[in-house]
């Protein structure tokens, strides 16, 4: 029974396939599709532009460094008022003479652990660019 149904379906399928006309795309089908795809990509592409440009960051950094240098080296020499030595009056011993800094200064790392950390860091610095290159090439069209 099943053989008769399969044979009947096969005959009908063959008949439909013989009667169907073979359709072919137009001559410029690929070019027109690719042109439309390119237009879609161009219309939706967003170019990243940072809020603060690299030039502005450079100017901000340079002004900050110049201000810091002026405060540290030249402020006490140019002014004669008692405010000029405010930087010298700050007691920085609080940073170095406290329980936390003393505990950290007595802490020692074993050599094997230090070598393992250095090796891990080196391998990480090598593998990240290699994996980035690999995935960029794989996802490239």
Automatic annotation (TrEMBL):
Transmembrane stretches, start-end: 55-76, 112-131
Keyword Transmembrane helix tagged: yes
Swiss-Prot/TrEMBL keywords: Membrane, Transmembrane, Transmembrane helix
Protein's recorded name: Uncharacterized protein
């Amino acid at each position: 029974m099943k053989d008769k149904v399969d044979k009947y379906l096969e005959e009908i399928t063959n008949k439909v396939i013989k009667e169907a006309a073979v359709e072919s795309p137009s001559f410029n089908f690929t070019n027109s599709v690719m042109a439309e795809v390119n237009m879609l990509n161009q219309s939706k592409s967003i170019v990243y532009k940072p809020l603060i440009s690299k030039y502005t960051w450079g100017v901000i950094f340079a002004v900050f460094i110049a201000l810091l240098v002026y405060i540290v080296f030249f402020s006490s020499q140019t002014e004669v008022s008692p405010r000029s030595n405010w930087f010298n009056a700050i007691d920085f011993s609080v940073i170095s003479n406290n329980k936390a800094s003393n505990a950290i200064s007595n802490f020692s790392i074993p050599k094997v652990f230090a070598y393992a950390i250095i090796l891990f860091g080196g391998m990480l610095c090598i593998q990240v660019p290699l994996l980035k290159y690999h995935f960029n090439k794989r996802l490239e069209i």
